[in-house]
Amino acid sequence: MEPRLRRRRSRQLVATFLRDPGSGRVYRRGKLIGKGAFSRCYKLTDMSTSAVFALKVVPRGGAGRLRLRGKVEREIALHSRLHHRNIVAFHAHFADRDHVYMVLEYCSRQSLAHVLKVRRTLTEPEVRYYFRGLVSGLRYLHQQRIVHRDLKPSNFFLNKNMEVKIGDLGLAARVGPAGRCHRVLCGTPNFQAPEVVSRNGHSAKSDIWALGCIMYTVLTGTPPFAAAPLSEMYQNIRDGHYLEPTQLSPSARSLIARLLAPDPDERPSLDHLLQDDFFSQGFTPERLPPHSCHSPPVFAFPPPLGRLFRKVGQLLLTQCRPPCPFTSKEASGPGEESTEPDHMEASNEEGAPLCTESRIHLLTLGTPRTDPADAKGTLALQLEVATRKLCLCLDAGPVGRTATPKCRTEAAWRGPKPAGQDPPGEQRSVLWAPKWVDYSLKYGFGYQLSDGGSGVLFRDGSHMALRPPGGHVSYQPDQGTLWIFALRDVPGPLRAKLAVLRLFACYMQRRLREEGTAPMTATPASPDFCLLSFTADAQALAMLFSNGTVQVSSKTSPVQLVLSGEGEDFLLTIQEPGGPSMGTSYTLDVLRSHGISLAVRHHLRLGLHLLQSV
Ligand SMILES: Nc1ncnc2c1ncn2[C@@H]1O[C@H](COP(=O)(O)OP(=O)(O)OP(=O)(O)O)[C@@H](O)[C@H]1O
Fold this sequence. Notes:
614 residues, alpha+beta, eight-stranded antiparallel β-sheet, 20% strand, binds adenosine-5'-triphosphate, nucleus, transferase
């Protein structure tokens, strides 16, 4: 190797220990984080405090060093005076013969570009989250009369708490009295504004254009302006011509269009940007979980929701004093430690009087939104059929003679059959809901199905379900419309609902596992299967599904009654907690010949009252 070359290489090595001559602090250089066009970035530890920083190192030598020196000096002059939680903190700078060093806040989760590399696209709630931080940091920059001029995902850094910070002020500049700075073509070509491309100077509104490009890029996975050759791309930029992202929500599309207005004066200010429908009408998470760096987050409910859940539960269990005794449980929300309000387990001690008739105090009720064209009233018809089914059971055969029925199925089932002979039930795996979660005041009513799927009937009357085994998502905005998506293709506007559905599903599956419920097997539900109605009062809960299945759970019994099929195929299935994954099913003939016990009769009556009150 030539001596001159060797000398240059050795000069570029950054020492392991570095001393800032101004402050006297000694740092230890750590691993290389990454390389930029002009710089390298290392992890850095302050030897006296053990505080960790990022060290940006810019070589002083090399071709074009004067220009580079000017650039670095400007970056230091601007950045070192900035103090804002959404701007990468600038702690110190010093230089030696070979390098200029900048000691910066360490952002351990690197940048949004790193997230996008893995995720390709972000969900709309995430975009709202990141943009709130970015707008806050950018507003501060603009207030200091600084324009960034190089806003892009690789310059949006993330600390360990997933807080977003604008960094790399290498191209930042102060604006003049007219709010513009030098007419130079700088920044990442894809994100350059029309006025920059036309060399009319860069202003705060050019940064806002870049936000439009970034919003488009993170939601669709490609930048709005990416054509080759460059001249064609610049023409599209000047004309504001980009491919309409039809897959995005109307509010996201409309905000992108506002941000990408070719006339800078037509672009919203940063304050107006946050007042846009996209921000004001969509869910924005308070924070993002770190795993959202590599997979779409499932949003946790904000704390007031937990409280709300508790309140709903308490309402369910205490407000309407039940006329018959049952044990109530503390309410809780998904992910909390106490038991849920909606899983109505009860103990009916042997010999306790059963209340047969009671006034209905509806505590919760939900039905899907109906299609305006549905003149026949599908729900009304299905309710009628379900009611008939319950009546059929109640009218079948003589009343059981057992005066003190137990809650266990076998014991509860005592029709007028010869003693010791069990009614001829069969083990059948019918579709039913072993778990549910009632958050209907805020979000909706979620249920776990015995085929492994889960669904939510949302407050707005729409229904969304996760279908095993492929994990397809069925969405019914109203009764009569069905959309099916692969999980990763669920459109932005439905992501918040999907997040609620997944959160409910996780919670219910965890509870089933904790309770030791055997894995269920059932013929998978059809894509349009949904929950048509849920009704609860202080004693019972009734669910009516779109295939005509009715499920009734009572506080006075740990078993669930599931009435499925019609005519010859009609089955009354008794599902016991902790019992086999398959319930015991009885045909109408068996019901007619053996009758039903008082306990089952009471249970069915509770369901009938609920259905009649919908
Ligand atoms: N404060 C920081 N905390 C953690 N990582 C950082 C920090 N600053 C930069 N990095 C990482 O160091 C690498 C180099 O960053 P740098 O800013 O020097 O160049 P760049 O932005 O990648 O490229 P260019 O400067 O050419 O735009 C990048 O991977 C970046 O994510």
